[in-house]
Write a structure and sequence with these properties.
The structure is a homodimer of 463-residue chains. The first copy, chain A, is an alpha+beta fold. Helix content of chain A is 33%, strand content 25%. In chain A, the strands form three sheets. The first copy, chain A, has an eight-stranded mixed sheet. A five-stranded mixed β-barrel of chain A has the order 2-3-4-6-5. A three-stranded antiparallel sheet of chain A has the order 8-10-9, with no helix packed on it. In chain A, helix 5 crosses helix 8. The interface between A and B is large, with 102 and 102 residues. Strand 9 of chain A pairs antiparallel with strand 9 of chain B, so a sheet runs across the interface.
């Protein structure tokens, strides 16, 4: 009996199945797309990808067996086909099995101008055909990892009882001051017409998620956020997904423990669930990838203060280390080169920098007793620099209000946020991970445009 | 030894633990918020909710044991406290355990004007304090279910190998014509300034997710979508989450099979994972809820054509059934009363209506051989009407192009979508579930504003 199978099922049976299971598969039906098709005049070979697995199934078709050998031998790369055939184990070959084709049908043909021919294409060219690039090895691997990593995030938090909160995308405040926000308007162009006040796209769900932490204790958001900055760098996009957990009855130490657990969990999860893809990245994209991630898995995550980091940087400079930005002083915002020096040269592993000067951090971060630093932390990792940023939140009403006044912030529209400090407030903390940057870190992909399905950046809205 | 515990852990040990496990818990530390606090002069009782579980822990404090009995007896509803106490099983009581308090500390006090006092509040009032309402029983249950249902969706699809795709929120086309879209602009107000063309908020990720189905076979989106319509109904919001799966090598029958599996899975999942909350909804919100959902679980999902449904409605009208909208003819768009008549009176259970007139459905739906209907389906369920809408997609390039011309649609900006039909296209299908409406269906909540953390509707952007 012929049975519908996916390529993934066949590989998994070869890999994990026992002899009986393997031998129980005989005649199969497969559907998928042709990656390559070649023949020697009497026998042909099709590499078939059906989307369920990174690797292809090898189809072998014989002039003696199938009708229309000549027609089939001209089936083109990219065509959708439907086949029936015999499943044959080939333990001595590179592929653990092949399919000896009995019948083959063209389900969907390919125009001559199909841009994904056999030759390799640059990532820049592939960005122009974002609707087709998931059919290439690299992007197939990237976007499968994106999906698996999303699931890792949900499993990590849900298994610990965290509540997932869909914080709003359209918002009336951009209070975090994290950057320029897009405005949301209706066709009549009056910015107040729809909501009665100006609306913008959220730059962070944190303020809203704090309200839920003070009801559920442990919560997280995971959704899209936006920046209207015209930065054309490999690490900036106008739209990207953020993970923002928030924990009540918790301080900065608890926060760092959670970040550490979360990062380790994600690394382990993709290594276990995307082995083929991770090996591919390690071979084709970044040959240091698996070593680098394994090192983090096995590392102690150091914790040093910003003040100690500044001292280390000044010492390095005094010893002749050249920084591009060599004006190093307490109070400065660290640049990527400084962060990388700390994690790569000083600590030689992942490190939390803590207790930053309040003037370079957000208004909601908890003021330390010294009156000049806040209970913030950034996780720095080798090869990348900052991966996660978190803080304990200011739970003291008066201190928060004073800080807002100091910064010239209006309390209007944030009364509800201040309320959280008046109504059973408690110490709480949280952090933010840029999901796309985490995915870059886990794949070795260098450009954020190459880890997003349809990236949005200035002048880029084709799809 | 005192041990940090959550209220959930204590309830679960009482429910699932063996005698040894239960007796191994002795002295515990708990943190949470006071729901009620009362006393008889020598013994006091605090209902403590720590956010981890729907039910409260009962704390008993004795004037003979704790210092400051008078102070503690004035701790107010909503205050955050930290306690240590002895865990005592009370199998003869309504609650399976109580905590005999040894020490209690105030972590965060409550202002006198705290709006959530003991008395019950209307949902309308609670919408005004959306930052506090998750602390009430109803909303605590609703938003926990929202989180659990989100996980159900991911587990359902991921366990079957579906790839989760983050389709873009900012989009250059509103091609589905599903409704009015919000525009996205930057501060200089020139609509072309940022992206080089006008941008709007996505009304659906379907077109983009089709591109991924033709690479991965089985995919889904789950993210926010937007409508700029000023509808002030209990079922409309300006921002809501949609689940949009798309499957390749699949037709309308496969699509309906998947919808059926998905709906059943979600019902089962929340019943198993939110038993307390579901019982609460069934008692306090909608006493038919669990019967209604159980009936769906055990039902055959009928499949009848739109044409048959029209005949049934005409027959009902002829037999004297009064419809508000009584002009019933082939080609009409069914109203909710018609849909409910079919599912409640004719089928008496869940039913797919299929093969709708092409003129009332979207351009991308596959034209049937009759030339006048399309391979679409709507799932109707008792008490609600339409819950899910799906269709097989038009995979034939020429037919799709002709349909777009017929509707006066421009192909500009959708060349990539048409490309999918030229480059190894295959039959494929998909559907959309409004996540918020599904949540309404599973909780019995009547207003979409009461299942969204911070709902966005016309003139409503406070948080």
């Amino acid at each position: 009996m012929e049975e519908f199978k996916t390529v993934r099922e066949l590989y998994e049976t070869c890999r994990f199945g026992d002899t009986f299971e393997k031998e129980s598969i005989s005649d199969v039906k497969l559907e998928g797309w042709i990656r390559t098709n070649r023949n020697n005049g009497s026998i042909g070979f099709i590499e078939l990808n059906d989307g369920t697995y990174f690797r292809n199934a090898q189809l072998v078709y014989d002039k003696e067996v199938i009708k229309d050998f000549d027609v089939v031998s001209h089936f083109k790369t990219g065509a959708a086909i439907f086949i029936t055939g015999k499943f044959v184990l080939t333990p001595e070959m590179k592929q653990p099995f092949e399919i000896q084709v009995k019948a083959i049908e063209l389900e969907g043909d390919v125009s001559e101008d199909y841009p994904l021919q056999k030759k390799r294409h640059g990532f820049e060219f592939l960005r122009e055909i974002a609707h087709l690039r998931p059919r290439t090895n690299t992007f197939n691997a990237v976007f499968r990892l994106r999906s698996v990593l999303s699931m890792a995030i949900h499993e990590f938090f849900q298994s610990q009882g965290f509540i997932y909160v869909h914080t709003p995308i359209i918002t009336g405040n951009d209070a975090e001051g994290a950057g320029e926000a897009f405005s949301v308007v209706t066709s009549d162009k009056d910015p107040n017409a729809f909501f009665g006040k100006p609306a913008s796209l959220s730059v962070s769900g944190q303020l809203q998620v704090e309200a839920f932490a003070l009801a559920y204790r442990d919560v997280y958001t995971f959704g899209p956020t936006f920046r209207a900055e015209k930065s054309n760098t490999v690490r900036h996009a106008s739209e990207f997904w953020m993970i923002e957990p928030e924990i009540a009855f918790a301080d900065l130490e608890d926060d760092m423990d959670l970040i550490e657990d979360c990062v380790r969990f994600c690394i382990k999860y993709v290594m276990e669930n995307c082995e083929e893809e991770m090996n591919f990245f390690n071979t084709m994209i970044d040959t240091t990838l698996i070593d680098r991630l394994t090192a983090v898995l096995n590392s102690h995550f150091a914790r040093v203060t910003y003040t100690e980091a500044i001292e280390e940087l000044q010492k390095a400079k005094a010893n002749g280390h050249k920084f591009e930005n060599e004006n190093i002083y307490w109070g400065m915002d660290l640049q990527s080169e400084h962060e990388r020096y700390i994690t790569e040269q000083v600590i030689k592993g992942p490190v939390f920098l803590t207790d930053y000067p309040k003037d370079i951090k957000a208004f909601y971060m908890r003021l330390n007793d010294d009156g000049k630093t806040v209970a913030a932390c950034d996780l720095l990792v080798p090869a990348v620099g900052e991966l996660v940023g978190g803080s304990q939140r200011e739970e003291r009403y008066d201190v928060l209000l004073e800080r807002m006044h100091e910064l010239g912030m209006k309390t209007e529209g944030l009364e509800w946020y201040l309320d959280l400090r008046r109504y059973g407030g408690c110490k709480h903390a949280g952090f933010g991970i840029g999901f796309d940057r985490l995915l870059m870190y886990l794949t070795g992909m260098a450009n954020i445009r190459d880890v997003q399905p349809f990236p949005r950046t200035p002048n880029n809205l084709k799809f």
